[in-house]
Amino acid sequence: MRHRKSGRKFSRSSSHRRAMFRNILSSLIIEERITTTDAKAKEVRRLADKLITIAKKGDLHSRRRAISKLSSKDAVAKLFDNLGPRFKDRHGGYTRILKAGTRHGDAAPMCIVEWTDRPSQAADIEDDGE
After folding, report:
1. What's the DSSP call for residue 118?
2. Which of 33, 34, 48, 52 has the fewest C-beta atoms lying within 10 Å of its C-beta?
3. Domain tally for the chain?
């Protein structure tokens, strides 16, 4: 039975899974919007929200914890200098997941993951259409 076991395995080893999420989180922090599969987006949301909570503290121990979770020091710098202060007054719910249809090759459901203080992609599409 799989009771009380959180997280998805994605048919990968634990080291591969950890490396994959480090790369996805670094891309989300640097680019502020990424496109990925539905299941990966839901896992990344959990990890990204925890990283923002760490960044809101802003002390040295928090920075070292974030460095251990991320692969890029540029991402850590942006996390603490930009994103942490941006979400200082918000209590959770830092990411937004938008459905983006299916992938052409294998029909996997795709999603867009972005920070909630950005305008949504639907607003971007409406602005481009006018």
Report:
1. S
2. 33
3. 1
